[in-house]
Amino acid sequence: MAKCPKCGTEVASPTKTWTLAPKGRKAVTIGLFKCPNCGAYFRAGIK
Ligand SMILES: [Zn+2]
């Protein structure tokens, strides 16, 4: 679940996900979300 930065709509599932694992740091899952309300694409970390 992520919130659109433009209109605040909650988007339930990401279009695409990938893992970002910087050396020596904890891996983070990033999701690419598309807002169904305004059509904006945005990235957000997934817990
Ligand atoms: Zn939006």
Would you give an account of this structure?
- The N and C termini lie close together (9 Å).
- The chain has a single domain, classed as SH3 type barrels (Roll).
- With 47 residues, the protein is mainly β.
- Strand 1 and strand 2 (10-11) form a beta hairpin.
- The protein has strands spanning 2-3, 10-11, 16-20, 28-34, 41-46.
- The structure holds zinc ion.
- Zinc ion (ZN) is lined by residues 4, 6-7, 9, 35, 37-38, 40.
Features:
single chain; 47 residues; mainly beta; SH3 type barrels; 3-stranded antiparallel beta sheet; two-stranded antiparallel ribbon; binds zinc ion
Classify the helix fraction into a percent range: under 10%
CATH class: Mainly Beta
Counting helices, strands and paired strands, the structural category is: mainly beta
Query: What is the CATH topology descriptor?
Result: SH3 type barrels
State the gist of this model.
By secondary structure, this protein is an all-beta fold. Helix content is 0%, strand content 47%.
